[in-house]
Structure formats: structure tokens, C-alpha cells
Amino acid sequence: MTQTKAVATGLRETSRPARRDWTADGGLLWLAVVASVYTLVQLVFLVAGSGLGWDETVYTSQVSRAASDTAFFSAPRARGITFLIAPVTSLTSSVDVLRVYLALLSGAGLFLALWVWRRLLPASVLALAGALFAGLWITVFYGPQVMPNLWVALGCLCAVGFFVRAARDRTDRTALIGLGVAVAFVALMRPTDAFWLSAPLALVAMAVGRWRRWALLTAIAAGGAIGCAEWVIEAYVSYGGLFTRLARASEIQGHLGWHLVFADHMRALDGRLLCRPCSVQWRRPATAIWWFALPLLTLGGVLLAARLRRLPLVLVPTLVGLSMAVQYLLLIGYAAPRFLLPVYALFALPTALFLTWIVRTARPRPLVAALLAAAAVAHLWVQGSVVADRAERSRADRVKMDAVAAELARQGVRPPCVVSGTEAIRVAFRAGCASRQTGGHDGSITPEGLVAHARERPVAFVVAGQAGPPAYARGWRVERIPNLPGLRNCRVYLSPSAHQAPTHTR
User: Does residue 359 carry a pLDDT above 50?
Assistant: First the structure.
């Protein structure tokens, strides 16, 4: 509570924008350079030849003209990212075009998120903060991905910036509107993340002046309500009610509770997209060095801001970053690097402030600057190696999925068709089929229903390794197919309605 009062005191210091020598006026060029380089790296290294991941396929199938049917949309998911990509997927089925669109949009989003802070922090700090965040392999990799987490991070950065501006200057009505829009955007992408964003902002808002308090709380509440409306309505239409959907979402995520997964998140920085469980070999410990440095640099930035009497400008994003980290470090029993993107975006501000101060004040200045530059180059080299590795895997996965889809077509699995079993969602999307599972988190049909489908259209049940088919498919024709990504001994059981294409001989 003491920290909250300190923040509120700082926010009440002035009703005018910050002084010219502190603000980022005239520094938009540097922000544009950072955002442009970020976009260019995505276009060069990640766009061409990459394939859709499992989660991406679920989201894309909801609005894609190439999908014969939508993939099952489980309870934790929100449709914000599908709305974001709909303008492109409704026009073309090209994955490359979709990647280019998202790369350009994420670069513009990074610029906008930094631009919001232009009246609060110097241009040099904002440019460095943007570079630190954009330089992480996670940020680069998820820029052109059909995933919501990066957009949550950018939305949080905007929301906190607008909040501080509106709290400091009651005449800044644009900031007040921007706060509501940013909270609504985050809620549309991930409703639970919007809660962890709004809670600390509301707590700080309670301690500021009465007019601004109710204005800020109204903007936060209205934004959250508007952003969550679609998710809540869908809960009653498709999931049996709001609390039923929340309970199912918790179950799918391994039951929310007390889980300490710091080590899992640290190991996942080695290039793992999902660590569940996180028992894999930790090949490159160097990928986590910055993770240990980040809390110390953030603390340094907060202490420096207090010394400069600008504490709220960095303490508010730090508090929100800590709040955003709670659910993923303490309440969910598995790790994925993308989960903490909002934390990294918010912590980049105090970190950049502290590093900028070190360069300007440390002596001998050239030596300190050279050491920091060398550390930055080494950091970017490590991050770049992980990005390159992930990009190569994505291209290899696309080749394998295309080969599987081509073999299924040769075996008679052509639209309208249904795919079930291992990797059913991605296989079905590539083959132009519907995906259906009879159990698990994506259970969407009964075995009897799938058998009924098999009488009318080709149905393929994919298995890998030592797994066998379900009882209803044991009498179906079995064929080998190219191995799926990360799997061996892949086979497919084909219903009698799947007629193998004739072999042409000369």
C-alpha cells in the first residue's frame, strides 16, 4: 500500500505534461527505426516458407476461406486474434501473405505502443526499451504468428502509458479514451490477462484525485466490459454459462492453483514453444542469462526514477508487469515463453532507463559503453540463433505437413472429409478436411457420430509410434504416411468411403 501511495503522490504532482527536457518530443524517428528494423527482421527470416502451428491452425480455421470447417474452439481461447487476421484470411489462403500482414502490423503496433509514452520518457529510453523488447527471440518469432500474446503485450504497454498520462494530466482526454480502448483490446485478445492488467491500475487509480479516480476507473471498467463481452456471450451460447466455461478453461490448463514454474520458464527460453512437461534437455543455458539480469535492471530503473523524482513513470509499468507475471509463474503448472511477453514489454521501460543512465554517468564512459555494447551483441547473437532454429523448424514442419496432406489425398481423403487422431487439426486443415476428436480437450464428437460420418465421406484416423486405432477403426484400411513433425511410425486408418486414387502406368 505504501508503494501505491507513492505512485499516487507522483501522479498528482502535476496536471501538465512532463517538462520538455524529459520528454521524447522530436524522437519519433528513433521509434520508427526500431519498429522498422523489427518488421524487417521478421520479413527476412520468418515469413517465407513457414507453416501454421497447432494453435495458429485453430485460430486461422475460424475465419479462413481455405478451411472446410472450423477447428474445435476450446474454452480458454478468445477470438480477438481471429478478428485481427480476418481481413486477410477472408481474401486469401496464402500463409505467406498472412505472415507479411502480421509482420507489418506488429511493427506498427510496436511503434504505436512506444509512441504512447512519448510525453513521459525520453526518446533514447523509449528507443532502447523498444529495441530490448524487439530483440528477444520470442518477440521476433511471434510477430508474424497467429497468436494473441504479443498483442496482449503491446496492448498492455499502451494501456499503462495512457493510464499514466491521464492520471497526470486531467486535460488529456485522448489518453483517457486510449486507456479504455487499450484495455478492451487486451480483453478481446485474452480476457484473463485483462484482469491482471486492470487490477493494479484500478488499485493505483483509487489513490489519485477524486475526478481522475472515477474517470480512470470508468475507462478501465468500460474497456474491460466491452472487450470481454463477446467471450462472456459465447460462454452462455456454447459452453453452458460463464462459470462453466471458466471451470473448463481451468481444467484444460491443468487446473489453476499454486504452481511454481520459474525453472520451467527459464528452460523454455532455449527455444521451446511449450514446456508441458518441461523435462527436456537444456541445451543452451546462455539463452536465460538475460532472464536473471532483467529483475535487477528493472529494480535499478525503479530506484533511479525515484532518485529523479519520476517514480510513477516506471513504477506503474513495473507493478503491472509483476501482476501479469503472477498467473503464469505461480498459478499455471506449465510454461510457454510467449506467456510472459507482456511482462518483458513493461519491464523494458525501467531497464532501458537504467541502462541509459549507466552509459551517461559511468566512468570511464567509453569503456562502459563498449562493455555494454559487447554484451548487447552477444545477447542478440544468442537470440538470433534461437530465431533461426525456430524458423528452420517451422519450414521443415510445413514440408512434412504438405507431404502428409498429399499422401492422404492420394489415398482418397478429399473434401468433404474428416480427420481424427494425432495432429488431426493441422492435418485436416492442410488436407481441406474437418477435424474431429472423440475425447480430450478438443472432444467434439462421439465415436458413434464419427462412424456415421464414415458412411458418408472419407474419414482418416492418424496414429503414431506404438499407438493403435480405436475399436471402430480396427477394420479400416491402414496405410503408412510420411512422419509428422517430431513423430515416427505414422499411419492412417481409412474408412471404406476413402477410395485410393488409381495408379497411372504406361
Answer: yes
| Mean pLDDT within 450-474 | 93
* Residue owning grid cell 492418424: 462
| pLDDT value of residue 345 | 98
Structure confidence at residue 501 (pLDDT): 64
Q: What are phi and psi of 240, to 5 degrees?
A: 85, 15
- pLDDT mean over 451-462: 94
pLDDT at position 7 over 60: no
- Residue 479, classed as helix, strand or coil, is strand
- Which residues make Cβ contacts (< 8 Å) with residue 96, sequence separation at least 6? 47, 48, 49, 50
**Confidence tier at 26 by pLDDT (50, 70, 90):** low
Check the CA dihedral 57-58-62-67 and report its sign: positive
235-247 pLDDT, tens digit per residue, is: 999 999 999 999 9
297 to 291, 301, 327: CA distances (angstroms): 10, 6, 22
In three-state form (DSSP H/G/I as H, E/B as E, the rest C), the secondary structure along 302-334 is HHHHHHCCCHHHHHHHHHHHHHHHHHHHHHCCC
H-only helix segments in 308-458: 311-326, 341-361, 365-410, 424-431, 447-456
CB-CB neighbours of 43 under 10 Å: 16
Name the grid cell of 66.
481455405
Does pLDDT of 3 surpass 60? no
The backbone torsions φ and ψ at residue 293, rounded to the nearest 5 degrees and listed phi first, read -75, -30
Of 61, 338, 8, the closest CA to residue 193 belongs to: 338
Nearest Cα to Cα of residue 144 among 116, 105, 88: 105
C-alpha cell at 414: 478429399
Q: How far apart are CA 142 and CA 386, in angstroms?
A: 13
Cβ neighbors of 375 (< 8 A, separation 6 or more) are: none
What pTM does this model have?
0.92
Q: Kind of pairing, strands 459-463 and 491-494?
A: antiparallel
% of the chain at pLDDT higher than 90: 78
d(CA 77, CA 72): 10
351 pLDDT more than 50 = yes
CA distances from 491 to 69, 142, 467 (A): 23, 32, 10
